[in-house]
Amino acid sequence: MHDELRAALAGLLDGLPPKQAAQAVERLIANYRGTTPTDAPVLRDRADVAAYAAYRMPATFEAVRAALTAFAVRVPDWSPATHIDIGGGTGAATWAAAATWQGHRSTVLDWAQPALDLGRELAAGVLPDTQWQRQVIGEGLTVPEGTDLVTVSYVLGELRPDARRAVVEAAAAATSVVLIEPGTPDGYLRIREARDQLIAAGLRVVAPCPHSDTCPIAVGEDWCHFSARVSRSSLHRQVKGGSLAYEDEKFSYVAATTLDAPAAPSRIVRKPQLRKGQVLLDLCTAEEGLRRTTVTKRHGADYRAARDASWGDDWA
Question: Which UniProt keywords apply (predicted)?
Fold first, then answer.
């Protein structure tokens, strides 16, 4: 799906004056960082949407795909038949869902018609079972009974608190819900609040948390987030600058479900630290909360597994 998305994005900024694209990106960065919650669409016109797609779709795709993959590991025999992407804009999460499961029908809901129009263009011929529907994202939003999967990615930070709670309440009507926000302290707090709301609605958390109890992180001292590697295309570098061929997208997420799915025994919540003959793993565990474990050569297969382990992986 990487190549298909990259091909769809190629040439997106052709004909758009560089200054206009740069201005649109700067304004979108402010909204992405969660500093301007609003009751109006963030993407206002074709220039905004084109800049957003070039600037954010590759990173959003990789972050959402990482979150969906972690969830899919917990429900290996399940796949959604219906998927609703709330506030999906140009459809990055829908592309990620298509990279994770096949054979489902997606509906992208967004209040910005220019975003839906461009999303439909980008997905033409690649995501045929996708509908693009204009919808106010906030109070009054409903999710049809029997919906299998709802995704809400990089949306909660754009909303005022009442609208944010209404969106999570609507999402909780689905069998499974995956919410993704920027991997910032504020993004984590929004995920933490939504996590509590999903649990109160009767869903069980299966990723990244190994439990549905209170998050063990002390607010203000740390935050839970993960990282996804994003390859930079020439278009991506044109919009964002920089010379590296990649970047690391930090994100926070929660996946919850009514399915009979066990959470992981523990989750690696920091990049593993490799030392001579040992690996240090920072874990969130079901029984002990946050703890560090040291895996040494004498642990044999566990040591080899620890050396290959990545930030965000399950750990038995």
Answer: Iron, Iron-sulfur, Metal-binding, Methyltransferase, Transferase, Transit peptide
b/e code 251-272 from CB counts within 10 Å (16+ = b): bbbbbbbeeebebbebbbbbeb
Return d(Cα 85, Cα 45) in angstroms, integer.
21
**Are the C-beta atoms of residues 5 and 120 closer than 8 Å to each other?**
no
pLDDT reported for residue 9: 81
Superfamily of domain 2-257: Vaccinia Virus protein VP39 (3.40.50.150)
Single out the residue of 273, 108, 282, 278 nearest to residue 208, CA to CA. 282
CB 90 within 8 A of CB 118: yes
**pLDDT tens for residues 1-11?**
678 888 888 76
The answer to whether 71 touches 207, Cβ cutoff 8 Å, is: yes
Is residue 147 within 8 Å of 84, Cβ to Cβ? yes
pTM recorded for the entire structure: 0.90
Over its C-alpha atoms, the chain yields an Rg (Å, rounded) of 19
pLDDT of residue 40: 55
User: Apex CA 177: angle with CA 142 and CA 193, to 5°?
Assistant: 90
pLDDT of residue 256 exceeding 70: yes
Tokens of 311: 């930030």
Instruction: Return all residues near 110 (Cβ < 8 A) that are at least 6 apart.
Output: 41, 87, 88, 89, 116, 119, 132, 133, 134, 135, 137
3-state secondary structure of 250: strand
Which residues touch 92 (CB under 8 Å, ≥6 apart)?
A: 56, 57, 60, 61, 64, 153
